[in-house]
Design brief:
Helix content: 25-40%
Low-confidence stretches: 374-380, 431-439
Number of domains: 3
Strand content: 15-25%
CATH class of the largest domain: Alpha Beta
Number of helices: 16
Length: 624
């Protein structure tokens, strides 16, 4: 039998490696930014076109490369970071596999310009699909510029798997944020389709966070600082009242390298136990410095997962450090039964000396005299007379009863002028179109299902999914017809978002206005709303927008759905009545009638069953 095993050609092997390293344009951004940092650059510029599908360019002012190194850097497993296997456990650099540039060059058009500080001219290298097409001498600034064009040009199947530009740009920004947050001592700039998205100067860690996520972030941060023999923790956590429903602002850095760890994330959640509302997640930006010998970075191609020698100790230290910071800054309540706050010395009196009190006594005062004169202030004298108490104390109450009867009213007439506050009226969730007759045919089961009778048997409706279907079709109709009703707010509602979230709101602004939102300002990290759709509570507006931004950025459910459909689904999901909410009988009737007036009442917008029927025959079989 003939031999069937053979070595793969280099271009095929590079494409296979590229499938592990380069999943989307954001992967290219990550590798190129890390190479720029390893080159010792203090100024890095990122240029993006069409969310990285057309162009990803990274320009740095690092030490550059020689012509030989420039050519060799695109070879597989070629690196300057390690020399032997032991170096894998003493890593202080970002890249070390030697696969990034070779993998990127296998699936894109790459142009490299680089020059060392001592050289007069640099090198320009052009590669297309692992094939070097030219290598020339060129005049270029000191440092390196790498341009990656037409990603996946020779693998159209992989290119078809890419999401929309909004989703891919979100992933690019996430990688940019991760690298920029880990290195506040480096200046970063990002340009998207010719416009500047970020310009981050050299700053401290707190200012870097504020520059990325907006000025309002500053008041949300609580510092965390703990130094032990095993672990050094520094950074910030967000205050509980600013927790979000999404996990967007959660960053772990181990030795200046971004990682993902569900185990350490659980430690943070445990520290916030009892402080967060259900379904919300705290923000954190934490740097962990450990001995490089105690971690293994080389367990995942993207190097975002790390294996620790002693995870349990790290868990305990991280949980304790965060809990201590929350208590130290009075974020978490502290139980101290022996502490008396009245004995605390105010800061303004901290360095003052105690003064003995001065007591003045009126020696001429005699309490047994019927009339006593004592000197008051310098403005005059005051006289106080003491009337003797009558021997018969019952006489004090004589005349009270007759005084009330003289008016001709009973004793309760004295309280006729009192006014009692009326109980607060609860606004009904639904506006009934028709008055509901007594003896309703609906019943709410466990505050989750609505039971209704039909001619053939019984109907069981999921109230949350049914209301989603109703709101979804209403929002979709309003956006399409562009005739939504808006309710003006007495005071404008101001919401604060990060710069990338503001870009999403700008894209959705016109469609949101068709649903009933009225915007007076969308810029500089702030959204000002003067009108909301009828039926949308003012307290729910921020939740609706946060959920909508999250769904658009993560493209839920998928790219083949229109933005209008996605918006209607997201808003319906946020505003629908929740499981566990008690409904009145007229609200139940309204929900049932509205559901069966929909075009597709049997399914929720997420294609889940909204109601089930049970016939009388099926019920009879249960009792056989």
């Amino acid at each position: 039998m003939a031999d069937i095993i053979q070595l793969l050609p280099d271009h095929v092997a590079n494409q296979i490696a590229a499938g592990e390293v380069v999943q989307r344009p954001a992967s290219v951004v990550k590798e190129l930014l890390e190479n720029a940092i390893d080159a010792g650059a203090d100024t890095i510029k990122l240029i993006i076109k069409d969310a990285g599908k057309t162009l990803v360019q990274v320009i740095d002012n690092g030490k550059g490369m020689s012509p030989t190194d420039a050519r060799l850097s695109f070879s597989r497993h070629a690196t300057s970071k390690i020399r032997n296997a032991e170096d894998l456990f003493q890593l202080h650099t970002k890249g070390f596999r030697g696969e990034a540039l070779a993998s990127i060059a296998a699936i894109a058009h790459v142009e490299l310009k680089t020059k060392q500080p001592d050289d007069d001219v640099g090198t320009c290298l052009v590669i297309e699909g692992s094939n070097v097409t030219s290598q020339d001498v060129v005049v270029t600034p000191t440092g390196t510029s790498v341009s990656v064009k037409n990603l996946f040009f020779n693998i159209p199947a992989r290119r078809n798997f890419l999401k929309s530009d909004a989703v891919e740009l979100r992933h690019v920004m996430d990688e940019f944020h991760r690298v920029a947050l880990a290195h506040p001592n480096i200046s970063f700039a990002m340009y998207n389709n010719g416009s500047e998205s970020f310009n981050l100067p050299v700053s401290n860690y707190r200012q870097r966070i504020v520059n990325i996520f907006g000025n309002k972030t500053n008041e949300k941060l609580v510092p965390v600082d703990e130094d032990t023999e095993v672990l050094k923790i520094s950074g910030f956590v967000g205050k509980p009242e600013f927790a979000k429903k999404t996990r967007g602002e959660q960053y772990f850095f181990v030795n200046n390298r971004f990682i993902k760890s569900a185990y350490l994330n659980h430690a943070i959640a445990s520290a916030f136990e009892g402080l967060l509302k259900n379904g919300t997640h705290a923000s954190y930006f934490l740097n962990l410095n450990v001995d490089p010998q105690t971690i293994d970075i080389n367990i995942h191609p993207t190097k975002t997962e790390i294996k620790f020698d002693d995870e349990h100790t790290l868990y305990a230290l991280l949980r304790s450090a965060v809990k201590h910071s929350l208590g130290q800054f009075n974020i978490a309540p502290v139980l101290d039964f022996e502490h008396d706050p009245n004995l605390d010395t105010p800061y303004s009196y901290k360095n003052n000396q105690a003064q003995a009190p001065k007591i003045e006594v009126d020696r001429s005062f005699n309490p047994f005299k019927t009339e006593t004169k004592f000197s008051g202030s310098s403005s005059g004298r005051q006289t106080t007379s003491f009337k003797p108490t009558p021997n018969n104390w019952d006489s004090l109450y004589v005349g009270l009863e007759s005084k009330g009867n003289d008016t001709g009213d009973d004793s309760e007439s004295d309280f006729s002028g009192l006014q009692f506050e009326s109980e607060e009226e609860t606004v009904s969730m639904f506006e009934s179109e028709h008055p509901v007759e007594t003896g309703s045919s609906t019943y709410q089961l466990h505050n989750k299902y609505i039971v209704s009778t039909i001619k053939s048997g019984m109907l069981l409706i999921d109230q949350h999914r049914a209301h989603q279907r109703i709101l979804y079709e209403e929002f979709l109709k309003n956006i399409t017809i562009k005739e939504a009703t808006s309710q003006q707010l007495l005071f404008p509602l101001q919401l604060h978002f990060s710069s990338q979230d503001i870009e999403v709101v700008k894209q959705l602004k016109s469609d949101l206005e068709h649903t009933g939102f009225v915007f007076s300002k969308v810029d500089d990290g702030e959204v000002e709303i003067t009108g909301v759709p009828v039926g949308v509570p003012e307290s729910e507006v921020s939740i609706v927008l946060e959920q909508l931004i999250s769904d658009v950025e993560n493209e839920v459910p998928d790219s083949h759905f229109s933005a209008t459909d996605l918006m209607a689904k997201s808003m319906a999901k946020s505003l629908a009545i929740k499981t566990g909410q008690t409904l009145k009988s007229d609200e139940q009737e309204y929900l049932v009638n509205k559901l069966f007036a929909c075009k597709e009442p049997n399914m929720s917008p997420a294609n889940r069953t909204a109601f089930v029927t049970m016939s009388v025959d099926e019920l009879d079989k249960k009792f056989m």
